[in-house]
């Protein structure tokens, strides 16, 4: 039988290890400060945040991790450490769909860490505007939900915007019914974002038949409104319940168990290739026969996997559409570069919205 180590001995060991960890963390922070000074000396005056570099570091941590912590847990810890080190120079300013407590804000923290300066704005348009005008260095916008599909407002903004996609992040979405009341019978109206209402349609029909559902700008805004009226409820995350002092009347009320939302990071950077990247493009063919074949052919010719394709009205001519396409690989990769060059000759418009690292932390 293995001898039991006295609790006092284990606590002494933990204290000694904590002291070593603290010293190493600060040593890493000092090194990060030196990196910043070197970049300034070399004339680099923009953002010190490099999405490609951070993705490579986090992947390396996951590969090196021996356990018993999971690889994702180790990556989360280093994500926060990197965020804090970067903030020693100047915290990143990142726009998100507010107010506080939205899933978009969760996506900001998951991707950038909690040391960023998160800036709440009212609409997806405002996120693009904040980054476009330089108010924020980056923005995080929802682009796709596993249950309800694409977020059209986000895709439509890219038709006219010159911003780049710099990264992606996925959030497992749990929807909850929140309110000041104690019973479902007291609910007269339910507020939430239109996507969340759609994700909970079956649950609402069964449990709150006939109750009016009102779409608002965000789940957190729904929670704020519910906090002002004892007859109104909201569908939102548990963070919103804490922020706005609401009771949890129903947990995990989404209709699909694996409900996940994909968010993208927008900015002006063009991340370098990391070996595990995505490229998103916007393509317009005009109203012509065989248009889709002309789009897909080059990717098949060069063995490129297409992850997603979505069409939207071009807003330029009647019945003319643009296609948003996600492919595996980076625009600097030889096969991707050759496919895009061939595609350029087959279409009316080709706009590369960004090549960026695939999400590292699941």
TrEMBL record:
EC assignment: 4.2.1.51, 5.4.99.5
Pathway annotation: Metabolic intermediate biosynthesis; prephenate biosynthesis; prephenate from chorismate: step 1/1; Amino-acid biosynthesis; L-phenylalanine biosynthesis; phenylpyruvate from prephenate: step 1/1
Any Gene Ontology CC annotation: cytoplasm
MF terms in GO: chorismate mutase activity; prephenate dehydratase activity
Gene Ontology biological process terms, A to Z: chorismate metabolic process; L-phenylalanine biosynthetic process
Domain Chorismate mutase: 1-93
Protein's UniProt keywords contain Isomerase: yes
ACT domain boundaries: 280-357
Localisation per UniProt entry: Cytoplasm
Residues the record marks as site: Essential for prephenate dehydratase activity: 261
Domain Prephenate dehydratase: 93-268
Reaction(s) the record says it catalyses: chorismate = prephenate; prephenate + H(+) = 3-phenylpyruvate + CO2 + H2O
Function, as annotated: Catalyzes the Claisen rearrangement of chorismate to prephenate and the decarboxylation/dehydration of prephenate to phenylpyruvate.
UniProt protein name: Bifunctional chorismate mutase/prephenate dehydratase
Organism: Methylomonas paludis
